[in-house]
Amino acid sequence: MRRGCGMAYRIVAERKDETVRMDRSSMLVAVAKARVWASEGWKVTIIVGDENEVAPADARRLSFV
Predict the structure, then answer these.
(1) For residue 2, how many other CB atoms are within 10 A of its CB?
(2) pLDDT, tens digit (0-9, with 9 covering 90-100), for 1-43
(3) Is 35 helix (H, G, I), strand (E, B) or coil?
(4) Which superkingdom, per the lineage (predicted)?
(5) Phi and psi at residue 51, in whole multiples of 5°?
(6) Of the candidates 29, 31, 23, which has an alpha carbon nearest to the alpha carbon of residue 49?
(7) Is the pLDDT assigned to residue 64 strictly greater than 50?
(8) Structure pTM?
(9) Are 45 and 55 in contact (CB under 8 A)?
(10) At 65, is the pLDDT very low, low, confident or very high (cuts 50, 70, 90)?
(11) Average pLDDT of span 53-61
(12) Are 12 and 53 in contact (CB under 8 A)?
């Protein structure tokens, strides 16, 4: 049973010939995962909802200060 109508966040991480896709319902978790992948050298993009691309994730720019 899902509570609310939370927005889905898709994380797409790419490096060389590898691509990893993950779906998360929490923006905080999506950003945390994206920061980890980006810090390990992956090109990370966070997609909000069905097709609205946020931006390529940069570990230095992703913070909740």
Answers:
(1) 6
(2) 445 555 688 899 999 999 999 999 988 999 899 999 999 999 9
(3) helix
(4) Bacteria
(5) -150, 10
(6) 23
(7) no
(8) 0.68
(9) yes
(10) very low
(11) 55
(12) no
Calpha distance 26→5 (Å, rounded): 12
User: In sequence order, what are the residues at sequence separation of 6 or more whose Cβ sits closer than 8 angstroms to the Cβ of residue 39?
Assistant: 59
| Helix, strand, coil % in the chain, rounded to nearest 5 | 20, 40, 40
**CB 46: neighbour CB atoms within 10 A?**
21
**pLDDT (0 to 100) of residue 5:** 53
Residue 19 Cα to chain centre, angstroms: 13
Instruction: Pick the closest to residue 15 from 54, 43, 45, 46 (CA basis).
Output: 43
> Distance between terminal CA atoms of the chain?
33
